[in-house]
Amino acid sequence: MKHSALSRLGQRAEAPPISWLIELSLTRPQLISLAAGFTDGETLPVKDARELLCEVLRPGKSGQTALQYGTTAGDPMLRELTARDFRLKDGILDNDAAYSPDRMIISNGSQQMLYMVTEAVCNEGDIVLVEDPTYFVFLGILQSHGLQGRGIRMTQEGIDLECLEATLARLKKSGEIRRLKMLYLVSYYQNPTGVNTPFAKKLAALKLLRQYEKAAGHPIYLLEDAAYRELRFAGEDERSALSARGFASRVIYAGTYSKPFATGTRVGFGLLPGPIYDAVRSIKGNHDFGTSNLLVQLLARAIESGRYETHLEALRRRYAKKARTMLAALRQYFPKEVSWWEPRGGLYFWARLPESVPAGVKSKLFHRAVAQDVLYVPGELCYANDPTRPKPANEMRLSFGGGSEVNIRAGIARLGGVLKKFVGRP
Amino acid sequence: MKHSALSRLGQRAEAPPISWLIELSLTRPQLISLAAGFTDGETLPVKDARELLCEVLRPGKSGQTALQYGTTAGDPMLRELTARDFRLKDGILDNDAAYSPDRMIISNGSQQMLYMVTEAVCNEGDIVLVEDPTYFVFLGILQSHGLQGRGIRMTQEGIDLECLEATLARLKKSGEIRRLKMLYLVSYYQNPTGVNTPFAKKLAALKLLRQYEKAAGHPIYLLEDAAYRELRFAGEDERSALSARGFASRVIYAGTYSKPFATGTRVGFGLLPGPIYDAVRSIKGNHDFGTSNLLVQLLARAIESGRYETHLEALRRRYAKKARTMLAALRQYFPKEVSWWEPRGGLYFWARLPESVPAGVKSKLFHRAVAQDVLYVPGELCYANDPTRPKPANEMRLSFGGGSEVNIRAGIARLGGVLKKFVGRP
Q1: Rounded to the nearest 10 degrees, how much is the dihedral formed by the CA atoms of B33, B39, B44, B50?
Q2: Torsions phi, psi for B145 (to 5 deg)
Q3: Are B271 and B99 in contact (CB under 8 A)?
Q4: More confident residue, A93 or A244
């Protein structure tokens, strides 16, 4: 057989590293995983979900509705509750079209929304700008579709705008700008760095992108992945790019209830500008003609009853506490040569080793860590295959999401012990 | 702006007719829909689902597991139960590798499996053979991916093998065989015709496909869509193509629990040969890294407890009864010039008008029917855009799945009244 059995996409598709890491941690109970972006087990709303599902599945018509097909875009009540909620979060009090439930599509987690948007917007060979580093499963989507990711340098205040501008100018000069379709930002408590991007920076990025649209010959979208937005520890919410007046036609917003409510329920959503909305709804029809009505109604009822908000408050306090636990452990157990970014929300610390110490999948350090039953996400997995810069290999993503505080402390202690063998402390 | 904002796929994607028909029937309660493939409302397992979810979500660890991420391939227990069940259905008593749970991936209904398999196997411009007529949402998948569907004539005993052979010979002669990737069969109580394909025909098709693999230069798969398999009214189950000894490496089997249990739960599965399995699991990782664990555990528990089987027996009796009701109504109310195929399972009758009477989406007949508040699926929607034959426009798919018996009778009476205005009865 000369030809492979697989399509180009089928050949390019690789198991996301997260699958492998999740499976490793599920099958080795003695292993402490600081890798998987699991949500906190003990806080999971088991009682809420049970009681809400009993209400959703009450005898009679309404119980039947939850077990029947819904519409492709998803339950109108969940869309209305969500759209209003996010409009108010952004401080918009009037009826702004950007937050219309008619622009919203419910998806299987925000992950499916990222996938469908990429399908709707990008052709093989196109270019997508991403944070450097970024969410690795999004890189898997790019990879499988034959797309090029170009990294924009990340700072503790979000992407470096000068780097964005220089990249755009370079793409314009080379003519590649005609293949540039999107800038992808994980704008809240980013996966993997924990960085929260200020609204002003989103606005500045939108203005820059617009300047290059003429050269591109088509719209350049900002795909805002807000998966961790709800998981801030305290303080004020940052406005989303949707609230940038005059730019709603260029913003694609992907949100989720998986992380803030329960990852096992897989309900996310997108708010999408007109042409993208139509295409994504059609693609959603082809994928699965609509997310499970049972799950969607569970979420709608959770929000309507106020249980979602109550749960979320508890979850925030819990994560804030676990982050403090990890911080204390890092200070206690990590060698002083290792630095980290301290998050104000989300699930992750981003740690940086001396440049001379590789921490990648094939590194001795990673293998030693696994042998010592502690797992982290090698930072190199979070970098696009961008030929314009070498991939840093001396970083690690450390999650405090899934583990107990005892395990977080023990995991960091184990990892600290491994690190001390690799990082000079003469 | 010279370039569209959308990718080629985004531009080609069209809302599946089913979305539009479902939404029409959801928003016009007075309308009797004989169109949507809804399952029977009154039989939906509301009480079973409620009680099972209460067990799944019991306090403690196991309740937490259901609300947490699972693996990409899906819960091992559901895969084991399903694989064993389908092996036994096919009369295979030993451990046949074709039915290994390690070849199984859980998906969001079988629909997502069809989508992912198409992604894994087909490149833009490739050819897929389909029944003529076939499941229209699969045609939507082909359309959006820039694939060509070629229709193989349908008989009341499944595809016409002579037509299959002639088509393969023609493709070989023209060289197009190198772009032929799959034969897609909805082999049980087909959507839209209700036809059940005998095992002997599946085996003969597999043998024919194999003869042409050398000319193709790659494997040619049989994608068996068994969405309606469980919905036979009575009698013996037909063996699946998986049981064709020596052909397991060429069979992709897509099944579902949506239709036999509850469409609102969206749990389906695929049994896939090696290279396709790996690619589809990676694609699944990129789509959503695994179907909702809550839904998957609900189904596993439904099967394990025996409630699924009990429910299914009741559902079969119910559909058999509704089919008899529709049959009696057709005999009573339809003009004698209209003929139909009587199903022995599934959800559909397939009716044929005189060739001179168009019944398509743009026909006067369809519009008159909608004006009279009765909806059917125009048969023409179920035909691929195959340039080698004109599309028949004088057929209709009539579903007895969702309606009550009163509504089935009333709907057929209304439609019969409309038909009599168009079909000569001098």
Answers
A1: -110
A2: -90, 5
A3: yes
A4: A244
Chain A residue numbers with beta carbons less than 8 Å from the beta carbon of B11 are: 279
Name the B residues in 184-203 with CB < 8 Å from any A CB: none
Q: Does B178 touch chain A (CB under 8 A)?
A: yes
Q: What DSSP character marks residue B2?
A: -
Give the Å distances, CA to CA, from B314 to B235, B317, B320, B346. 15, 5, 10, 14
Range 258-297 of B in CB contact (< 8 A) with A: 262-266, 275-276, 278-279, 281-283, 285-295
In three-state secondary structure terms, A345 is: strand
Mean pLDDT score, A297-319: 96
- B136, B385 in Cβ contact below 8 A? no
Q: From the list B58, B59, B292, which residue is nearest A266 (CB)?
A: B292
Check residues A90 and B39 and name the one with the higher pLDDT.
Answer: A90
pTM over 0.90: yes
| Inter-chain contacts counted by CB atoms under 8 A, chains A and B | 311
Question: In one letter, which amino acid is A67?
Answer: L
- C-alpha B139, offset from chain centre: 11
Give the tens place of pLDDT for each residue, B351-380: 999 999 999 989 999 999 999 999 999 999
Q: If 0-12 CB within 10 Å is exposed, 13-18 middle and 19+ buried, where does residue A235 land?
A: exposed
Query: Chain A within 8 Å of B18 (Cβ-Cβ)?
Result: yes
Over the stretch A364-384, which tens digit does the pLDDT of each residue have?
A: 999 999 999 999 999 999 999
Query: Residue B74 is encoded by which pair of tokens?
Result: 């899906």
Q: CA B13, B18, B22, B24 torsion: positive or negative?
A: positive
Query: What pLDDT is stored for residue A1 in this prediction?
Result: 37
* Cα dihedral value B143, A111, A107, A89, nearest 10: -140
- Structure tokens, B165: 């052979």
| Per-residue pLDDT reduced to its tens digit, B296-323 | 999 999 999 999 999 999 999 999 999 9
State the pLDDT at residue A38.
75
Secondary structure tally for chain A: helices H, strands E: 15, 14
Contact indicator for B341, B377 with CB cutoff of 8 Å: no
